[in-house]
Write a structure and sequence with these properties.
- By secondary structure, the protein is of the alpha+beta class.
- Helix 1 packs across helix 12, helix 2 crosses helix 12 and helix 4 packs across helix 9.
- The chain has two domains: 191 residues, no CATH class; 209 residues, no CATH class.
- Helix content is 56%, strand content 15%.
- The strands form two sheets. Strands 1, 2, 5, 6, 7, 8, 9, 10, 11 and 12 form a ten-stranded mixed sheet that branches. Strands 3-4 form a two-stranded antiparallel sheet.
Amino acid sequence: MMRIRPFIEESLGFAYHSLVSNRLRTFLSVLGIAVGIFAIISVYALVDSLERSIRNSVQGLGSDIVYVQKWPWGGGGGEYPWWKYFQRPETEYREYVQLAQRMERTSGIAAVMGLRPTLEAGSNSVENAQMRGVTEHYATLWKLKLEQGRAFSTTEARSGRPVCVLGASIAEGLFPTSVAVGKSISSLGRTFTVIGLLEREGASLIGESHDEQVLVPAAYLRTLVDERNSGGSNIMVQAAPGQTISELKSEIRGYMRSIRKLKPQAEDNFALNESSSLSAGLDQMFGIIGLAGTIIGGFSVLVGGFGIANIMFVSVRERTGQIGIQKALGARKSFVLAQFLVESVLLSLIGGLIGLMGVGLLVLAARHFTEFDVAMTWLNALQGLGISAVIGLLAGVVPAYIGARLDPVEAIRVNT
């Protein structure tokens, strides 16, 4: 152990002296690696942030919830036969009622129907707003949090009272300077009393943020419009404790086929969707994106590695006489080899650190100018340093090996 420490200290000393005495050359070599690390780690950080945001949104759908809908999510792979799904009927409120009566093992069931009307409150209005007709368990299934007021009661939901709960952005648009709860809004020729305000959720990459929505009882909304022409209608069913998703889907499929009076040989004219189907697609998608980012950023790092290798060849040639003297005084090949490898790796690590600092500045700028949650994780930083060290090691192996094999007599003679 006592012999290794002086060995490392001397190697670092030689490397430091070489880097400081050739500042311009060091700067150019470091710049190449810095640009490469900046490129590849920026891609990793952006892809990781995008994946984290999308997966969080998907988790919000509920891993134990099945969605009965007209359209399947992804279509099960291969070609997506949209023309067949287009002919399917939308889910209806009466189907929700019948399904709720038949489902014995469930933690909750809710119906959803959607419209995009104009909302008005005094002189303020919000056009093309997302109005959702929902039932009493909807807020529980989505785990919605209220900032003010309350959600629908069971009586209000089932009797169809003209009440509503506003998302944060809708409330800001209709009541920019006053409290929304207790006020009234107008839409579809009717007046709704605001009984609650949802906490702000922020943007969602899968389009399910409640900030832009207004929730009303589905039993009331269906009296104003034809629910068969509404958009995005579905029935949400949550599995009971101990019940698997496959068991739940099998039970729902049997009841829905009975409710829609489908013949035994007929195909389902509804889709049973779950979040795991989206997660499987995300694994494949982000695997491809990550591979593409590695290839694209890898070229930048590779160019920086060639720059360091070139500089190391020059360094070996300039220090030929010094190597000859060291070997003549008894230095081993491993000592000479270590000098140049340490210099190469140190050079690459400095470039990597500068590249990571650039990524950090990019992340701060992205957070300041956009609402997207971008972050550089510790894993990204370790990846950057690891790639830098490997590139430095590979770039310095051949020059260091050439230097270590120099004959001391020939090396001293060449230098003189």
